[in-house]
Fold these 3 entries.
Entry 1:
Amino acid sequence: MILASNRIGPEGAQALAEALKINSSVRLMILASNRIGPEGAQALAEALKINSSVRDMKLASNRIEPEGAQALAEALKINSSVRDMNLAFNEIGAEGAQALAEALKINSSVRDMNLAFNEIGAEGAQAVADALQRKTSVRDTTADDLDDGAKESNDQVSGRRPFEAPVRLKPLAGALKTNISVTSIKLDDNSIGDEGVKALAEALKTNTSVTSIDLRYNSIGDEGVKALAETLKKNTSVTNINLDDNSIGVEGAKALAEALMTNTSVTSIDLSWNAIGDEGAQALKQVIEEKKKMGFELRIEF
């Protein structure tokens, strides 16, 4: 069932929810951008407590807020059929993220959950990290707004707070050390910087499940990428790395080239829009020549 961008609102969501209570054939529900609000989310949550057929529910951009997220969390404690849930752009905040994290500790079916752009803040990130440490079935986590939604005292801070991003990333990185099912890390445009990628690199020294890392637009320099390079000398699970549009220079490129010469798993890396220069490009060229039989792909655009 695909009903995205139809302005169905809370009443429409409630009607669909009633139908779901008796329907046993619908597997996919795409209700993104429908302004269902907390009331609509609550109605759908009640339906999910009964329905056992829906596997994939996409509710992005619906302004469900903390109340809606909390209702869905309660449903997930009971529901055992939903595998994928997209709740991006829903203003769920830390409260909503905490409720969902608690549900994930109990739920045994959800494998993919998207909480991007929800102002979950440090508390929300910590809650998700704690859930990841205990849960072994979640394979993909997306948190595109680690540097948004910070709270200071009791007031929400407006605007981006990039200097806090590395601090918030540390709990998630710590969770990756013990979680063995997450396969994809998407942290593009979070200003995690060198400190953030260092925390991630440390986690990847022991993690064996992550295969794809997206670190575009993160102000990562030579210091951070050198830490990642050291990890790649030992890591054998990561296959795809995107470092597009960072601040990587010649030294960072050389460090990566050295690591890639011994690494046996990475098959694709994007270093477009960095400052690696001719010297850095030359070092990476040697990697391409060495690994061309493996189908190694290097992307560099300026």
Note: The first strand starts at residue 28 and ends at 30.
Entry 2:
Amino acid sequence: MKIMIDGHNLGLKEFTGIGVYASNLATNLQTLGHDISILYSMYSGSEKFPENIEFYQKLATEGEAASSGILKWAYHGFPYYLSQLFGKGLTPKKVQTNIQLINQGLNRKIPNGATPYNLPHFFRVSQAFSAISAKNLNVNLTGMDVLHLTLPLPISARGVKKVVTVHDLIPLKLPLSTSVNISHYANILKSSLKDADLIFTVSNQSKLDLIEIMNIPDEKIHVTYQSSFIPNNLLNLPQERIETVLENYNLKYKKYFIFYGAVEPKKNVLRLLQAFSKANTDCKLVVLGKNGWLYEQEEKFFDAQRYNQKYNQDAEKRFNPKIIRIPYSDFSEMMTLLKGANSLIFPSLYEGFGLPVLEAMQMGIPVITSNTSCLPEVAGNAAFYVDPYSIDDIINAIETLSSDNALLSKLSSLGLEQAQNFSEEKYQENLAAGYNLLK
């Protein structure tokens, strides 16, 4: 099949979890023999320069305009809306593939072997249009068999099968954990799903939520789960290499816990910080990730820690804090920090899948995670489970895994075994089964 995948998250300046999903989806569909194209929504004067150099430059340095940057994308709205009014779809332009520029650092944003197309600011305009009207914008995809949206985008393509991946329904499940406009979100979600031929989800939990909240028929939803590709050089990092990176953060091998992800309410970072500050442990906590939604309470905690650290009379505490915040690192360093950790601690309130849990298990790192949503589905019997609403529960997990080497070893082995349930081969089997439903 000829499949067009949206590149919305691939086109963002900073790589996201859905960006990882889109990249893995494209790669694995190609392995299954499909012809893959990616639709981007970059603004560039690509026709003015040979080999679409400006498209690649914008993709590498600026990314797609943020939804808040309305002045950058709104002027495309009028001609796009007129096209919709007169029943005409919008036609993306094929971008000349520039292998040299892709190899210089865009290989994660443009999956190997995929053909890029571009329609400037299309995703932002479609979201704004649908938020108000609860309708989709149409795109012309002549020659394509399938449009696969990696998240619910309000887009339709006449004469083409449509697959939509739904990762979670967080704004509807935990509305207090996000500042998303719920009405706009619901309009976009309904618009995207109403003409979908098939809906993919990444867990049975997400499937159940779609059935219960959105009244989607069971037979229209296919669970693929996710896979995660970690290169062998990172899976098998020697301790000396890891310790070289740890020195930059004043960390010791296996003497810290790590959380990584956005700092926002649904990730439960505030309770984690409160628990760790009270726990009796000689380990540290690394919080790796940028601020997400409604992060003010967590930021106040970090501010207080920085103040106490600065004015503490104890030199050891002043120069050797118990909790370390790292706003950003690239994938290689993130996996290195994970590999050197005592355990991953991921007490999220709700997840559609929980990719860090899988990545930790693949790396042989013990996992502390929540006994809610899809997380038991992913971690199986290979995790130390906590009630994410109980600070005492989280403290107990931290203190137990700070000293119980036998349990650490057991969880590491069980995690490696559990991770095989989400191998690339299993993921490809699930993808193939889903696409066979379209025939």
Note: The chain has a mean pLDDT of 90.
Entry 3:
Amino acid sequence: KKKKKKKKKKKKKKKKKKKKKKKKKKKKKKKKKKKKRKKKKKK
């Protein structure tokens, strides 16, 4: 009796997709201007 040889199946490798990172925009803070109070002069 002759033995039959089994054929091995080759597995296909899947390619992984690279994800792009999004850059976050920094918000600029506005500086508030202080108003100077005028002093009243006493006569």
Note: Residues 16-42 form one domain.
